[in-house]
Structures are given as structure tokens and as C-alpha cells.
Amino acid sequence: MKLNKSNIIMLTLLLLLLINDVHCRRGRSRGRSKSRMQIGLPITGKYRDPESDQYYNNNDGAKITLASHFDFEYVLGHKIAFLCIARGNPRPTITWYKDGAEIFSHLYLHVHQWYIGKDTVKSKIEIDPATQMDAGIYECTADNQYSVDRRSFKTDFSIAFD
After folding, report:
1. What gap in Å lies between CA 25 and CA 22, rounded to an integer?
2. Which residues lie closer than 8 Å to 42 by C-beta, 6 or more apart?
3. Which residue(s) pair with 102 in the sheet?
4. Which residue of 36, 45, 48, 144 is surrounded by the most CB atoms within 10 Å?
5. Sheet with 63-67, side-by-side order of all strands
């Protein structure tokens, strides 16, 4: 076989395709394990630069220390309440969301907030009376300049037969 310019290009392309095919198969043969990047977790430990490590492990960052139950079934017409306590320095702010939209106090939903010491905040939402429209995913978000922490609460209703 005579090696001219077009033959060399064809051989190079064929070689690249074979290498790429082997690489793709190797990736698929790992089974069900997922790398940290695939599931969206931050890189930790020796693979992270020191500045990032200091940011993610900052002791002053907002941390939720106590939160309500995750899955809650409420009775229509009764009161439901969710609690969230967070600490950090500076003191974190707590924001509540329902199905991804920020919620505020209104006639049937009240957001209460208390400051405890110089670094802790306690927040509670109360819905009274609860209706079918109150079912969904509620989220408590605590944040300060160093970090953000979240907890989610899933709610659904049941009908009480008195």
C-alpha cells in the first residue's frame, strides 16, 4: 500500500474513531455508579483547591439545625405548621417557598420569625385552615454571605370523617 497524503488522513481518522469508540464503551461499562459530577455534588477533599475548600467548609456559613418532618399529610380544614431553625455568622435569613415560588404572609398563611442570640434565627409558617391548594412542596432556605442551606417538606391532604 502506497502512503500518500489522502491515505494518511484516512488512517488518522479511522484511528481517531476507533480510539473514541473504545473510550465510549469504557464509560458505559462502569455500570450504575455515578461520578460526583454526574449527580451535581461539589468536589470534595484533595481534588478541590484550598480556596474552594475554605469556602465550602466555612464554619460561619448558614446551616439549618432543626427542620420539620419531610413528608406530611394534613387534614383539610385544620392547621398545618412548618418549622426551620438556622445558625450562622452573620445571622442567616430564612426564606420560604412553595412549589418553587417565594411565599409571604396573607390572611390564611402566617410567617413568624424570632432571633435567638446573635447567630440563630427561628422561622415558622402556619396555614389555618388548610385547603387542597396548600398541598405541594414547601422549602425553607437559610442563607448568609458564606453559604445557603435548604430543607424541603412535601405535603398532601386527607379528608377527615368525623
Report:
1. 5
2. 36, 48, 56
3. 97
4. 144
5. 63-67, 80-87, 120-127, 109-116
